[in-house]
Batch of 2 targets.
Target 1
Amino acid sequence: MRSRRWSSPAEKRYNEAALNSEFLEFRGVSKSFGPIRAVADVSLGIKRGEFFSLLGPSGCGKTTMLRVAAGFEEPDVGRVLLDGRDITDLPPNRRKVNTIFQSYALFPHMTVRDNIGFGLAIAKRPKAEIRSEVDRMLELIRMAGEAGKKPDQLSGGQKQRVAVARALVNRPDVLLLDEPLAALDLKLRQKMLIELDLIHDQVGITFLYVTHDQAEAMSLSDRIAVMNGGRIEQVGAPAEIYESPRTSFVAAFIGDTNFLEGRVRDCLDRDYCRIAIAGLPEIVCFNDKVLEAGKPIFLSIRPEKIHISHDRPEESARRNLLPAVVEDVIYLGSNTKYWVRAGGYRIQVLRQHDRYFLDEKPLRWKDACWVWWHADDGFMLDHFRKDDEALLAVPPQSVGEPLNGK
Amino acid sequence: MRRSRFPIAVTGLVLAFLYLPIIILVVNSFNPARYSSRWEGFSLTWYAKLFESPEIWQAVKNTLVIAVSVTAVSVVLGTTAAYALHRWGSSRLQRLHYTLIYQPLVVPEILMGISLLMAFVAVGAPLGLFTIFLAHVTFCTSYVAMTVLGRLQDFDFSVVEAARDLGASPWQSLRKVLIPMLRPGIVAGALLAFTLSVDDFVITFFVAGPGSTTLPLRIYSMIKFGAPPMINALSTLLLAVTLTAVLLSQRLANRRANSVTHN
Amino acid sequence: MRRRRTEWLASLPTLAWLSLFVVVPTLLVFVIAFRPSNPYGGIGAGWTLDTIRALATPSYLVIAWRTLWMSLLTTAICLLLALPAGYTIARAPVRWRNRLLLLVIVPFWTSFLVRVFAWRSLLHPEGPVKKALDALGLVGPDATLLYNPAAVVLVMVYTFLPFTILPIYAAAEKFDFRLVEAARDLGARPFQSFRKVFLPGIRRGVITAVLVVFIPALGSYIIPDLVGGPAGEMLGNKIAQRVFTDRDLPHASALSAVLVLAVLAPLIAVLVLQRKGKRSDIVMGEAP
């Protein structure tokens, strides 16, 4: 994410203050549809100018949150505030908020120009102003030549750009995007991702982006809220979410990970502690929590942080070393995924091929090997739920075995 | 996989069966002979006789007056009903609503006819063009509602939400977005209502009064009291008119007009 | 609350209209069945059960029975013809499908009265069909094709056939024909796979088709009136006779009440079946 250039120290201070205030706020919002609780007591603050994503599987409540912000759903409980003002009771047409719909929802009986100008026409702006604003938008999305076309004559990417222009021309305080890239194929999606990013930088409006695709969320967002079952699991910058997941859901939903279960033995010093795990040698882990001996703990280690080799590496104080047996080797070109068994655990290891070593003996099935990782790379979770293990794609060991070997 | 010829053969027979009487009817309308068994050459005598008959013209006038007014009213009622049924489909009110709208479609015409007759008699209303109008609106509305409802099923409602999102009031989004997009379906429904009203016999028979003869009623009395071959000519004309209306209606109902689709 | 108000506003016009012109009149029919006939025509004063008791007379029972079996026969024949037809149209290439459907629907959209009249001319003793059959020696010169139950059934089948084909087609169109291929792959003969895989698969279409013939057939009036004669009289023309010839509204109401109940019976049966199978509403196929 590129940062904007500030013009003066005073302006920078003002902008920083504005940046740090909560611009779009959800306070204790709950919404149910009949017996289904779509959103359960969610509070969230989004900063001005942020690119904020709601990330989660389908049914987690993220779209409902968006619709509450837009005014298409009324929360059963809770308030929504925009720039300090309570907008919960305002109908959608009275909010300074615009939505990009998943199906784009372009008006089929109007041209591109009329589509983009719709909001301004409703607001009864003078014709000259509408014309110039629409032209400006057409420039921004580079579709000045297609202004007279109807939506059914446009490609998917073009439709999306028109939808964005139609929303932005009204200079909303917040732009809401409901999985706008879901309908596009992979190549187009990658291209539109970059375009969205550029538009955000150029225009500087607050974006609230809803998606189930972690790659989209991670690459575009300033901050992400991971949602599951109507609740927020964690809010933070992408790196924070990835490297320091608070719950097993966040750890398993985003990328891959390994879960180890154990008890705290004792604390080595202020920063590290020792954990006893059944079947494995003692594990050392970086400690950012207040812990006492005997407390049960769940560890999450990402596969790319684990190293693997035939030969036993040197011992090191902060290194966790385990003997293991290779169970599965999946060659992926730029890297290889290994499934190894150590103690009672099946551990996933991701190894990048950054050098091509001619004489290196490849690790094969049933080989004895060594895996290790640095104590800093394991992360202790605040909450662990057994169900979240199902999110890890552990391969079955025989035909007919339920997924994840359970 | 080799397909059995049997279904196709049956379909062919069915189609032949369906068209036989109609073809014979149309052919005979050009036959100047009194009894259709003898073909006496191509002639337009019966058509000419039709134009000269004042009762026929009166019936045509009555039929058209009723059909146009019925269409206007039932389109408004039916479209509103379809919108409600689609928008709030699963609520208890709408389920009751749907059952009610469904009734005229399922109930045999004679039941509708007699129940309306009883109602008018009980209230003391004089039977005439107005009672026919009321009866026709009752069943035409249901057909319009079903036609428009069918179109609404394929309708992407996020377009209406988009209009609201961009500042339009509920009424504005209805006027500027929903209705223009529904236009083909509404017109299809209107044509359907028109045709049904022009064609209706049984219900009209029960609720008509003296002096309020419509075309179907006139045809019936012509059939019952001697059958001048004028009927063939009249029927052929009626056939042509309703056919045109219905073909237009089908065209509009089936056209995948301008809906935004995913790529 | 805001949403509720708009819902009521939008539903009110049709709800009010239909309650007034459908529900109330139907109730009225049942009410008037309990009143005596006025010998001078119209409805008499007071309440009585005589009108209803009069329903049990043999002549009525004969007509009721005739109406029932003729409707059932019509339904059966229509189904037998509609199943292959619907199947063929659903399997036809897309371009042909719409044309075939249009061909099926068009006769329906000619005036109903006119079509029945056309059949009357056709079946007339001086008409072409009789002459053809005569020439082939299939019928004697004195036989009448008109004014009997067979003629009524024939014309009813003719009238209701398009109604039957459409729901069968609609269901067949949604049917995944690869299931039939799978059945053939596993050894079933064509008719077997038709019976065991296709028919159950279009069950809902068949049910709709049956309803769409059986119920209107029960209430037929014009067809028996024009081609049935006294031997082919059905409930429908009995009711009309009571109203227009005899001016006996209470008896007409009583008969109509019977018809209403007869019509409700299959509808409720289907509803109960639906609840058991937990399926969603039967769609009447788009009204042609």
Target 2
Amino acid sequence: MLKATGIGKRYGAVTVLEGVALHLRPGEVHAVMGQNGAGKSTLIKILTGVVAPDAGALVLDGQPIAPASPLAAQRLGISTVYQEVNLCPNLTVAENLFAGRYPRRGWAALKAIDGPRMVRETRVLLARLNLDIDPTRPLGTLPVAVQQLVAIARALSVQARVLILDEPTSSLDDSEVESLFALLRGLRAAGLAILFVTHFLDQVYAIADRITVLRNGRFVGEWTPAELPAPALVAAMVGRDVALASATSGAADADAGASAPTGAGAPPRLSLRDFGARRRLHPLDLDLHPGEVVGVAGLLGSGRTELARLMFGLDAADSGTLAVQGRVVRFTHPAQAVRLGLAFCPEERKADGVVGALSVRENIVLALQARTGLWPCIRPARQRELARHYIALLGIRAADVDMPIALLSGGNQQKALLARWLATAPQVLILDEPTRGIDVAAKQELMNEVIRLARSGMSVLFISSEIDEVLRISDRIVVMRDRRKAGELPRGAGEAEVLALICEPAA
Amino acid sequence: MTTPDMDTPGPLPATPPADPMWLRASRHPLAWPLATLALILAVNASLNPGLWHLQWRDGHLYGSVVDIVNRAAPLAIVALGLTLVIATRGIDISVGAVVAISGAVAALMIGGDLKIVDGQPVHISHWPLSVALLAALGAAAACGAWNGLLVARAGLQPIIATLIMMLAGRGAAQLLTGGQIITIYYPPYFAIGNGFLLGVPVAALIAGAVWLLMTLLLERSALGLFIQAIGINPRAARVAGVRSRTITICVYAFCGLCAGIAGLIVSSNVKSADGNNAGVLMELDAILAVTVGGTLLTGGRFTLAGTVIGALIIQTLTSTIYAIGVPPEINLVVKAVVVFAVMLLQSPEFRRQLRALAVRPAPGGPR
């Protein structure tokens, strides 16, 4: 149905895509796989008219097309849901669904938006997708996962023939993923061509009919899932033979095991007692020892992020105490937390992390400079040295330390943010969903790096919605539920125990 | 010459063949402001052949260009302060009112009485000159700090916060002067706006000193980095531990201080303080100077050198309009048209469309 051949794209000196082919067929779910910076997002932007390719051709139903804008692509029947929700949080669900094409009533210049009709049609649309969402709620008041579903509903509300989903599941929990997949299966049966980008291998095998792999902006191949078992897929993505087994258990376990005993007897580096805030977090106790990785598991909205923000002084705690090295402190600004050696990689990297128009170098030195204060300014040569060091250490794909960070792919931005905090040599590192939206190999690298840091004495609070990651990396696991601490599990706990704590009904 | 991190181009990629020199130069952030300035100067010179005629008379430098630089000084100082505010994603439309306040405070405190000392008539100021200057600058900085508090602490939108100060400040200046023009009789004060030092106008020297100090401050400290981070992504700056509120308040206070300096120059130049008319519409000229100089109103990246060039552009334009004898009643229209053209030419989007038009073959031409 939609066929792309020989697609190429350069940004300045960086070649992002070269000779990429993609063939979407009606009634098929087509997964595009690749590491961070492989060119998946750029490919999608080309298909949807956000950017124009430098080379290659797009053919839709035998007709060559060159969509000049997302709107033009939409008119051709190509609808897209982007990785990060691109809707207006201050508008209602219905207004978001119909943004740009509101139903009108009245005549001539006096046409007003037909609010009731819009809400009615939204109800019908959402019901068809089995979504129970109030159309009159402002979108921003809904959880991120629900916003994602609204974004998908919006993409489907225009007469789409090709549906493009860029990591739609990265903020969804398992049941939401399942309902999304049920939806996709229905759409597939209706003859839509669906392009699906994800980092979750199991999801690819659960839904995809065909897999295209990109690596470093080049086309590697197209297979059916049966032809390409998971280890072969990973090998195709990273271009080297990574045994999948080691990416999911073995090696990391051994590494983590070595770091486990260090912290047990020492006094806690950071300790919370009855620490909480009204409407955000029920008071809880928590200790972080030197050299320890404490995992935080829980569903979306279970209070994980709230805990991290309170600890870091981004929000004000109103009960209990927080003590660093035994000294009770009250943070009113993150700068105080940073001064005492805390570091925090936030969940929403676009909103809370990257400073888009600044260079990779400036982004990396920002926290260290903030900790140093206005004076002295880190010398430019030293800044470059720091940036190069972390680019090499974390394998960040950046052509130059002085290129704007906005030009990096999402996963590389995430790594640059980690670099920003590592540069401050923190004692306590809080990572909120550090692996979201980054590929298998990078995830593994990142987790190995976390373990290495812990072994060198850092205390790490590792927040993730992927239970297997938490299990693999943590010396202890704190399980959150309904904004309170549901329990704490020792190293070696099984997935079932964590799940039991997560699901147990609130007392 | 330039702010840190702003105009230092990264190492050029080695692989692709280098673009011709003029093309690379045209991408420099200061290229368009400089070209604009050159163009307006050229127009002026063609109509006023004496433009470049410089004279050394009585140990002073005289000439049309010197005059333009001298007159651009207050605007440049105000615009330099405003550049930092704009870089934090803010705006300050109260600078004109603060110019009036500063002049009024100085005029009231200096006043000037004629006394006969040893048989000679001598003008005496009410307060020592230094105290009067410090009070005027202090009042101006306090106005700016108040703006900063409203923006950073109370969370008011910058345009609203400074609109309040624009009205209140103008009112305060009128109260101070009693709605009258207060004449100053104290010659030492006149040196600020009319004097020469080593043959160069003092006002121009003050503007140069402000520019130099700011450049040094921004280059030697991390202030430039923090201001840009706040302007581009305030939430991320806060998470990274940048004291955004403190810096924002300081930046507004500094902007007020700059307006205060400009107010001293203006009132010294006309030897009086006029609460009703001093600094009127100056905020708009300053915003124009900043944007014409290449700093975006959306915050983030900024250029001090561009702002200075922008102020020169605005002043040269004004001088040119007077020099070629445009009737005063259509002055503003001519200025608006020129500024409109300059802004259009500086818009990358417009240039892209222009290029597309130039490249497309004319209809009916060879196919």
